[in-house]
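Quick one: examine this chain and its backbone structure tokens and tell me how the chain folds. Here goes:
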Amino acid sequence: MMIPIVMFAGGMKPVFNAMRRSPIQWMVWSFLGFVIFYAALSYAADSGPSWLIAGTFCTTVVMGVLSAPLLYNDHRAKIPLNALLVGLFILIGVFLMQWSAADGVLDVKGWIAFGMVLISALMYPLGNRGLMLHLEREGTTLNPIQRTFGMVVASIPFWIAIALYAYFQAGFSPKGQLINTAGVALTSGIIATVLFFQATDMMKHHPVGLAAAEAMQALEIVFATLLGYVFFGEALPKLWAWIGMLIVMIGVVVFIMVATREPKATVGEAEK
């Protein structure tokens, strides 16, 4: 699907040249940002309603901020205190949704699914930011479409291994699943990922702005709730879950407001 798009958006040659110069980095960041992200999220999606998985994935707002010290050694390594506080506020909404969905008690399967979503929420911004930083240090310029294509290519060996495991476990996918997968590949894998990478690329030198771009994924709660109800017959959320969703949405709006101005303090400065 991506080959004709890349050919009209910068070409494949610059991508393969960049991958030849540093294949290990491409494979590592693609493995984290694509393989672990999608595998963990797919596992979690099999355990609960769409709105719950989408809502829990909003923890990526906090994960994106917390991953900064792991990647950067300049001003971007600082964690803005006000952004972190807003992120924690969003987490309160996420926990309310989880608590409501489980009627106050999460079983072992629920906790495992919750952990899978948290891992996924960390891996997506980590893989994206890590590869952007690598290209920045290397002095390589690739547009978001080229970067997405390169990460897809770099992750293919891992997907082949997962596909073989799945085949021996469950055989070939039925026709309906293949059609659905093609739709997900087009809408999420290409359209959404390219737009997301474009937004983060525009904010790569602004740590809070980068986190704000990542935070916009919180809007998926609305779409997941409606689409899950219409197409999959999922039950609508209960009262406390709606309250949790509202908290998350308010938190995202405040987060965007925080991102429009320079943070006055960071976690490290606050401790001093």
